[in-house]
Amino acid sequence: MSVIEVYQAKDYKSELKPIWCPGCGDFGVVQAIYRALANVGRPPHEIAFVSGIGCSSRIPGYTTAYGFNSVHGRSLPIAQGIKMANPDLLVLVAGGDGDGFSIGGGHVAHAIRRNLDLTYIIMDNQIYGLTKGQLSPTSPKGLKTASSSYGSMEDPVNPLLYVLGYGARFVAQGTPADMAGLATLIEQAIRFPGFAFVNVLSPCVTYGQADQQLKTQKARMESLDALGHDPSTRIRAMELAQEYGTKLYTGVFYRDPNPDPTYEVFMAERQMQLDEAKLPRERILDLFMPQQ
Amino acid sequence: MTEDLIIGMAGSGGDGVVSTGDSMITACAIEGYSAMLTKSFGPQIRGGESSFRLRVSTRPVLGPGGTLDVAVALNWEDFLKFGAELPVGGHTVVIYDSKSGVAPNALPLRGVQPAEVVPVAIEQMARELAGTEKAKNTIVLGLMAGWFGVAPDSILAGLRKRFGKKGPELLEKNEQAFAAGRQYAQEHPLRTLAPMAPAPAGPRPKLVTDGNEMCGAAAIFAGCQFFGGYPITPSSEIMHFLNREVWKYGGSMLQAEDEIAGIGACVGASFAGKKALTATSGPGMSLKTEMLGLASIAELPLVCVNVQRGGPSTGIPTKSEQSDLFQAIFSAHGDVQRPVLAPIDVEDTFGMTVEAFNIAERYQTPVILLSDQELSQRKEAVNRIDTSRFAVENRQVPGEGELEPYVRFRITESGVSPISHPGLPGGNYLASGIEHTETGAPTANGEIHARMNEKRLRKLQPLKARRDLFLVEGPRDAQIGLVAWGTLAGVALEAMRLSAAEGLRVKVLVPKLLFPVSEQVYQDFFASVKRGLVVEQSHLGQLYRVIRMFVDVPKGVESLARSGSNPLSPEDVVDRIKAQVKAMQTEYAPVQQVG
To answer: Which end of chain B has fewer CB atoms < 10 Å from its terminal CB, N or C?
Structure first.
């Protein structure tokens, strides 16, 4: 007999008070995460929530899950180690656009191709907030910031195309301007078997651009569902993803209709196949006995 | 009878030089000899010249030794490329393929006059008896067996095993080649070298393996269930070993996209409650530094092996050096300390690796295990290890009374706080690289920061009392004291033996725990001698300088340090010992009264 427990959003909310500025988009993101987790219904102690460094990376501490607020750009390697060590856990990863696509950009491709069952949420505000307003990898070209007084001379990273190009099997975008919609997207990402990516346009009220704030987003956002987008083809998803920076699409860009088995499935198979071939640990040195 | 024999051999790729060395060390292990095999290759990825040095002894082999007793040159061009690695001296017996056309009195050995020179028609014998020059190495095995009596039956058994699979014809030819080599040796006895004395009684066969594989096996024994790393010379064989083995024990391994991700995954696995190992060499250590700091402040157990090679930067990837000690101890920002251990040989690598895991688990800290290229890739025939002598420790998990609320970083008397892991109900907490309160909440409070620093440093203090992590050998009343670590311990111990034979009283201190520094151990040792030498394979003499940071080193304790890839030999150490003795005599000479 197992006791079926029902969890509510408040069960995932910790007692820590967020350090975020009043009006920060990340408040909406954490609310959406509470709701998504309640719908999925895993107890907090079976969830590991990993982040890097940045305003948004404080987020694990605001949940009751096992949290790991690690170092800048390295949330994905740590999360993969956790998932490999204990595949039964629900593993969430989150951070900012700088954490994920600048200092940690090298890890994204490999997390995607390894395809462990992780959910990666980027809070994309197109600016560095914690360090007080420098250029980020997703800042639009020409943006004037503390570190680009005369305007940026670089093209921004397109996070959606980036992950679609590397073969991500679930790619969605949301905004805290539509918190209910965002919660649904995160829930779908968690339920998707494999690496799932959600880009969240979460505005910075202090250093962000005026046209990125929640009010403007509400007016600009277009639901992919309402547009009749079929998320089962990668090429169509990539066409729409090219509009990043000009249009604000929300919803699922791509969901692999026939997802491959995840890395954990291969791991379990290998562990099972090799189990019988092992020597007792205390006799491991027999491997070095010369054959007579 | 010969008690201790050093054979060196070189040839070109395809001559089977390395397999000759492997056959011989395996045979020695089966017969119960102690042995050490070091291999060296040219820089080519494949092919090119190759060589080995094999030391066989009736006593434990402490190091690869210096000048060769026997030099085997399949051709002179390749042999000479190894220079100082295959030194020929006045007592060496030189055996070479007469096909090279060099006259015995005109060897290209820069004026060295070997004790005995024996040209043998090795290639011709191989062609005539086995129908292929590929059997040259089998002829050499026969010669060695014939002259030195080293394990002929076991070598023959090895040949049968190796060639048996390839058909009866090839096996028969190789058996003939082996017999011919043996017969040739018996018909042409050496003047200056006697056969090996029989191996002493004891369990046989001995084990044969190298430092990297021993490290991997010890990790499995210690309960390691995760390996994360990135290919790098000379540590990759640790990854190869765990890749084969760790899955069998319900664990997993990750060849990560870079060194940072490799250790990052280990940090994650450790957070998830599993014992984790990463292995690398100097350049990889540089990249892993930030993650080591994270593991220190988040108080997560982790073992990081650094198989040292020549540095800085790419340096000399295939040669040994002890120049990463500063890095192991000091490469961190913030007030952080982490234990640093170093094994001295292949057998000791087992115990030190298990110790590294135990210390990591007990104190919830990353531990660095400093190996080096030579130790990691040399094979040794070593005594069987009774694994029941080694306890395996596991991290302290919170009891029921300590959960809900769970105080992850509780300041305890020992400084160690019980650690939970995801999946454990009621143990939920926030791990972080940010300074935190006892419950794990981020803080910038100076008072809490000071208390947390104090807790994290205090918990490692008991290590300083671990006398079992130091080795002291030699006469109590020795006048000269040597300090040496890692593979140089064997060199120092051998120098002690050689000195004793010359009537010099020398003792040796070997620290296997390099950090934290046990001040008292060094103070006591230096106080017990008149002069001292800290012997190490690095240009700066890094251990000497580290000791001086923490200990008032008396006058007369000097550094004997040399860059890697120029191995310090026991004879080099004895020369410095003699210089010290001489200086001491001058120092203590009574003043002559005049008039």
So the answer is: C
